[in-house]
From TrEMBL:
Regions crossing the membrane: none
Domain Nucleoside phosphorylase: 59-310
Name of the molecule in the record: Uncharacterized protein, isoform B
Residues holding substrate: Q223, R225
Length: 346
């Protein structure tokens, strides 16, 4: 059977039944045959760490581009859900020894940086999905919190992705595996998107909307910018393209949504993307908002996501002072090996 036939289809009813217990299943039988599954880019391992003890209570995996943003979100969500650290301790970057991504655990919430662009997100997603599997997490929800360029919407607008589209306006992500090109549906959970939208407040001094998101492989030419090192199209060409996007219901552009949607859907994980627009691309290419304004704008998606997390925890009677585990080492020898492998692996 070709890769195209085997891997590009959506989950069937029979496959969905496999997820009925809420745990994450892997579509890779090789993992069970391995002595240890080292998550290189997270500096974790299935035998060096007690992943179920460390992460088994995780219900929300929140991802964003930069380590600093996700560290800030970790502190923010800690206050929002009433999480209390043991006396004399502080939040730790669990993946510090990877030197690639940062990860903070706040009770049932993981706050993880994913870098910029689909390749970086793809690496992290594979290892985060495997982490959920090894930790035996039940019904985890993945939410990407990011920034974007708006199309016909002003800077500061919060945008919840309805459909993630690639550069050719296809609702899928293209992979090349063993020389074959395949497409996996880039589907997000629309019920989750509506739930998030319902938590926007009339008192918010900004709009929160739902729409289609264009995911590109490039910040400059791929997004029709005139200010890159290269530009072989005119401003008229650019404006015609952006208007075409708007006519097709696209309200923002970023560089991560299709891979995030494709891999969560392929794993049977409920997911959403919530971004804030930093500018209206119909008015220009460069972000000129003052630094303090940008900082406040970037908090807006975090506020919406925190409302959702608080709501879900409250529904389950879990919105209270929470005491979590910051780490459990099963094997000091394997722990050291994982650190060395993560530092050496390119």
């Amino acid at each position: 059977m070709s890769l195209l036939t085997a891997n590009s289809h959506s989950l069937s009813e029979e496959e969905l039944d496999e997820y009925s217990d809420g745990t994450v299943k892997l579509r890779n039988s090789n993992i069970e045959l391995m002595d240890q599954d080292i998550l290189y880019h997270l500096a974790l391992g299935s035998e060096s760490h007690d992943l179920q003890e460390m992460f088994g209570d995780v219900k929300f995996v929140c991802m964003g581009g930069t380590p600093k943003r996700m560290e800030n979100f970790a502190h923010f969500i800690m206050d929002e859900i009433g999480y209390k650290l043991p006396a004399g301790t502080q939040l730790q970057d669990i993946s510090a020894y990877s030197y690639r991504y940062s990860m903070y655990k706040v009770g049932p919430v993981l706050s993880v940086s994913h870098g910029m662009g689909t390749p970086s997100v793809s690496i992290l997603m594979h290892e985060m999905i495997k982490l959920m599997y090894h930790a035996k997490c039940i019904d985890p929800i993945f939410i990407r919190i990011g920034t974007c360029g708006g199309i016909g919407v002003e800077g500061g607008t919060v945008i919840i992705t309805e459909d993630a589209l690639d550069g050719q306006l296809r609702n899928s992500h293209e992979f090349t595996i063993l020389g074959e090109t395949i497409h996996r549906p880039a589907k997000l959970d629309k019920k989750l998107a509506r739930e998030l939208k319902s938590l926007a407040s009339a008192d918010d001094p900004y709009d929160t909307i739902i729409g289609k998101t264009l995911c590109t492989n490039d910040f400059y030419e791929g997004q029709g910018r005139l200010d890159g090192a290269f530009c072989e199209f005119t401003e008229t060409d650019k404006m015609n393209y952006l208007e075409k996007l708007r006519d097709n219901g696209v309200v923002n552009i970023e560089m991560e949504s299709t891979i995030f949607a494709a891999l969560t859907h392929h794993a049977g994980i409920k997911a959403a993307v919530v971004c804030v627009a930093l500018l209206n691309r119909l008015n220009g290419d460069q972000v000129n908002a003052p630094k303090e304004v940008m900082h406040e704008w970037q908090q807006r998606p975090q506020i919406l996501v925190s409302r959702y997390i608080r709501k879900v925890l409250a529904q389950h009677g879990q919105l209270k002072s929470l005491f979590g585990h910051q780490g459990s080492i099963k094997s000091p020898r394997r722990f050291k090996l994982v650190q060395q492998e993560s530092q050496a692996h390119d």
